[in-house]
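Following up on my earlier message about iron/sulfur cluster. Here are the inputs again, as you asked, copied directly from the submission form:
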Amino acid sequence: MIAEALAAPDSTSTVAAWQRELQESFRSPAALAAHLGLEPCPPHVPTAFAFRVPRAFAARMRRGDPADPLLRQVWPAPAETHEASGFGPDPVGDLAAARGDGLLHKYHGRVLLTLTGACAVHCRYCFRRHFPYAGQTASRGAWTRVQEALHADPSIEEVILSGGDPLSLPDARLAAIADDLAAVPHLRRLRIHTRQPVVLPSRVDDALLAWLSRFPLPTSVVLHVNHANEIDAALMAACAALRRTGVHLLNQAVLLRGVNDSVADQTALSVALFDAGVVPYYLHLLDRVRGAAHFHVPEEAATTIMMQMRDRLPGYLVPRLAREDAGAGAKTVIA
Ligand SMILES: *Cc1c(COP(=O)(O)O)cnc(C)c1O
Ligand code: SF4
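Thanks, got it. Here's what our run produced:
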């Protein structure tokens, strides 16, 4: 993890309000538990994947409830240390597919760019929690080579900015990246995979909106919201501002035991997302990453939830239930 990158704002830009807010994030389970009135502090374990929760996200957790679905996503439960067969450090084969310089070209026409390993929040189920980002990001030093690779392959129609969280980078850097991408003649679409507008709505500020508005190609921003309780007034305002720039807002969620593994949870999530102007895109089965087995929901249970959602919601509010299989040419859609 290169979380420190967050605390070192780009030298060419001034420190934005969201960057200052990030520095006030909770860095220890005990501090968050005290803030939420959880006495005594629920059991937790120290882990190499650091604890990190912005105050704006903690504000949506219920006070005094150790089973809160938002808290569960970030809590380093003792179960993280249990060995579970089939759960490893690189569950989706990203290391095998990496071309270096943060370029991941697994699917036809789409290239995923890992811009940074930094995230505002650390989700305990993250499939990249053990990813060795050093040498595997499209950093400034690698950027010329990344551009050459994009220009050299006319089959690439879409670039996906990913991470970590690409919006961890300052807007001056992102605007420069966007300008360089706009100069790739065969590029038709841009996509941004980010959780920052969710966990830190102040990230959607004028500087971000300015370069997004200017970017000439159709753009989608794929958010990561797992539970309806994550959608508050601040996030809705951030979504409205993003939409005014002309971007399409989609959501990908992860199906997590004890967080959102019921028809009621998933239905409420889809409805709340659409109220915020966001269309549900994928519901991912958990990637089998070491330390996350306690979040696992079996495929049959997941399929049942989907079938019941289809009975209750319009088709466009039912996400695709998908699994990522290492080495496959696309996500595997299950239902
Ligand atoms: C998920 C993913 C994509 C995007 O897949 P879509 O089905 O187009 O959303 C692209 N590249 C990689 C490496 C991915 O993991
Ligand atoms: S925001 Fe995304 S990349 Fe970052 S820790 Fe959470 S799931 Fe992983």
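One observation from looking it over: DSSP finds 13 helices and nine strands in the chain. Hope that helps, and feel free to reply on this thread.
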